[in-house]
Amino acid sequence: MEKYKGITTFDQLIEVEHGKIGTESRNSYEEKTQMFIISEMLKDARKEAKITQEQLAEKTGTKKSYISRIENGKGNIQLSTLIRIFELGLNKRIGLTFL
Questions:
Q1: Is the dihedral of CA 16, 17, 23, 26 positive or negative?
Q2: Domain that holds residue 45
Q3: What is the pLDDT of residues 26-51, one digit of tens each?
Q4: Once rounded to an integer, what is the mean pLDDT over residues 7-19?
Q5: What would the DSSP string read from start to end of the chain?
Q6: Is the pLDDT of residue 84 over 80?
Q7: Cα–Cα distance, 97 to 11 (Å, whole number)
């Protein structure tokens, strides 16, 4: 518990647990976090559209197993494919922000 002494923000906790920004450990954590967020957004949007993974795959020229892997945070996804899934398959626009 000593390593948590003096921590007052979430950013400080992340740094203690995963290292400073730019380290391999932190990069891996950030990548997994972003994939989790994308997977949850995809699941929510698909359920809101009231379509199955199979229907979404058909609309976007992918496979059900690929949609499932993305929704479970298990696969890498190209930006062009992500855009196609959200825009063609779910009628949603994607906005990107670079920090």
A1: negative
A2: 2-90
A3: 999 999 999 999 999 999 999 999 99
A4: 95
A5: -GGGTT--SHHHHHHHHH-STTSHHHHHHHHHHHHHHHHHHHHHHHHHTT--HHHHHHHHT--HHHHHHHHTT-S---HHHHHIIIIIIH---------
A6: yes
A7: 20
Whole-angstrom distance, CA of residue 77 vs CA of residue 64: 14
> Has residue 96 been placed in a domain?
no
pTM listed for this prediction: 0.82
Q: What is the CATH number of the domain that holds 71?
A: 1.10.260.40
Looking at the structure of the chain, the number of domains it has is 1
* Contact criterion met (CB below 8 Å) for 47 and 39: no
- Sorted by sequence, the CB contacts under 8 Å of residue 35 that are 6+ apart come out as 73, 76
